[in-house]
Queue: 2 jobs
Job 1
Amino acid sequence: MSTYAALPKVELHLHAEGTLEPELAFTLARRNGVSLPFASEEELRAAYDFTDLQSFLDLYYATTAVLRTRRDFHDLLWAYLERSAAQGLRHVEVFFDPQAHTSRGVAFTDVVDGLHDALTRAGTELGITGGLILCFLRDRPVDEAARTLEEARTRLDVLLGVGLDSAEVGFPPGPFAGVFARAAELGLRRVAHAGEEAPASSVAEALDALGVERVDHGVRCLDDPDLVARLVREEVPLTVCPLSNLRLRVVQDLAEHPLPAMLAAGLKVSLHSDDPAYFGGYVGDTFDAVAAAQGLDDATAALLARNAVDGSFASPQRKADLR
Ligand code: ES4
Ligand code: ZN
């Protein structure tokens, strides 16, 4: 076994809703009397054959219908945490999409409190630290994001930051500048998905218009050498998700994933799982997949793990423990 298996894993790009395995989806559907448009777990899993980001998002939002109560959100994230603890997870900054739930009549506080219950329990029972990052849906109106941020003011103590996700092409970061400025005023950290399917210019726009401290995906930055130079100079962490890129056909083959080029350029890259229930792997599996497809020497594995620690919003004390 390679030594990377023993490295402490820090997950910075993980959507809570993307950890919903078919088994739990059907359990929650039965518990809540919600029907899923699939006859069985096998049929649902067979639908995990995506052609692009949108084809995935359609299924991802459809299955969230089973999540209704504070307990559901706890059970969802707890299942992820228990499973990932076995793969060496030590710290996780969890994205969640409140608008995907409040738009269905679920209370914002039930979403946040349920997820927070699971993280609190993980601290005591698993020694895993972490926090919650509220993501705005970029394909929904800006004023809806602004209202969501106002709702979040009742839970600022349990929120680490804000992010931006969902359909990227046609939904640039710029219009969310005001919402992100307000989030910064409230003391929240800022990240955004950029350069996943949309071009490199969307990465620069996220940095300039939103003031993000970390970029999620960012793989398309390689198309623009000036942008790469800036990301290196400013040491902007990029949370790269190879299995996601493969399953959403951003790359055709893991062997061709630009991770080595990103590392060679000196970018602050780390490895993450994005939506592990849908993309075929949790954080440890992601390291395994990269190792199998591209090789992963000990120094590179250690650098990837170290970049995740450095790029996290953990306290200086916790970062020292994780290194
Ligand atoms: C997502 Cl892979 C990805 N990209 C953008 N938004 C998302 N939400 C959940 N997974
Ligand atoms: Zn993502």
Job 2
Amino acid sequence: MCNLITETILFFFLLRFSHISLIPYFNFIVKDFCLLLAAREEESGHFTTMTQGTATSDKIKVVYCEDGLLHNPPFEVTSGKIKPYVESPERLKSIKKYIDENPSMFQLISPISDYTLKPILDIHRPDYIAFLESIYQEWVNAGLPKDACIGDTFAQLSFASKLSEEVLLKNANQHPTGKMGYYLGDMSVSFMNETWRAAYASVQIVLTAAHELLRSIENSEANDKQSKMVYALCRPPGHHSSDHLAAGYCFINNAAVAAAFLQNYSSKDMELLQRPYDPVLATTTNLENMMLDEKPIDEKKKILILDIDYHHGNGTQEIFYDDSTVFYISIHGYPDYPHFTGSVDEKGRGRGLGYNINIPLDPEHTTDEVYLKHLYHVLNTEKTVVNFKADIVIVSLGLDTWFEDPIAGMKGLREKHTYYTIGQYIKQSEATFGKPVLFVQEGGYTYDKLGELVGQVLQGFACSSDEKLRLDA
Ligand code: Q9C
Ligand code: ZN
């Protein structure tokens, strides 16, 4: 049994199709779609705007939805072992408990709003979204085991390097296991009946948070120095997912969808899409009617994504690799999962060259001090990052750098206060000073510590003074 599993793990490598034409997917009638939604809205007659009020404006806004708990697969396969699914609903419960226990610090935004599938399709391929929605039922209908919807044969490049993508996809589509192998990167993503619904809720959480952040930017007075921040308590996480890939517990790249949402949509556009959260909107029957309406490059807001999850965010890097309007920085354990990315050599490509920075750190020897030194350096003395002059910062917030993490962890990162300092650095560094920040929950698996660690980062940001950092680096 274990040998078989070890063998299948050897097929983890997914094809990266750099020359896919997305054009056939986007034959758009977006206006019709918006009109349709608007009509539905009038019919239903209920439309909520989110939180207002100044009394709570000094609290940290947390966007949460309990549908994130619905994804709960029984097991995963890691390093030749079958073990309970590490990315468990316990993670969400732990963080939510901490939020609930500190009501003077946090303001909960729940229920969330729903922005439909449209912003998701600005990042992910429609065929991939349709796959996420339907695969579990197809798997079960094919007579495969209900409690183990998991990939075992992966679309590795050398299977079919001479075939066109069309032929490969046509072959893969013949069987649920083929589809799984085409769209999955590893055996840490498994599906159950409610997986798509949880992933849909997770991305609507980040969209709700992005909208809230934009609103607080636009509503603030010119002299209002109060820093803008919102925390999206997402589950499942997102940074290993790319346009047609689920991997590393991730299905939808929440941070990437939020980045494109903030770039391509005005607050008016967001309001037009906004409606009460409704998982029924997650059905993909109308996919063809939704278009990608990107802004011209010079009109886009510049987004800096700072990924401090222990793992390299291969999905986010891949999505924005050619893009000069989204700067991706990742500090991560290396060598480790996801194994095929994360080196300093990956600097971006074409227009995006110079807008991707990887900081691989040795998991065995990285201490609190070393970690903070690297973070300080990239945010203060790295010219390209400072000169980028981001409009908005998105933090992919993983807590799996903590030394006790069961699947990750920097062995020398042992001080809780380091997480406070991380928040402080994000507030006070040259490249991020004065910028609105969207914190997006990624990984972290020490269930009982997560709330506290998240709290440290958020408070480090919220409670540190509005002064630039001065350190003798
Ligand atoms: N022995 C996130 O933190 N399995 N994903 C690793 C290590 C996958 C982590 C196996 C880890 C994915 C969001
Ligand atoms: Zn991680």
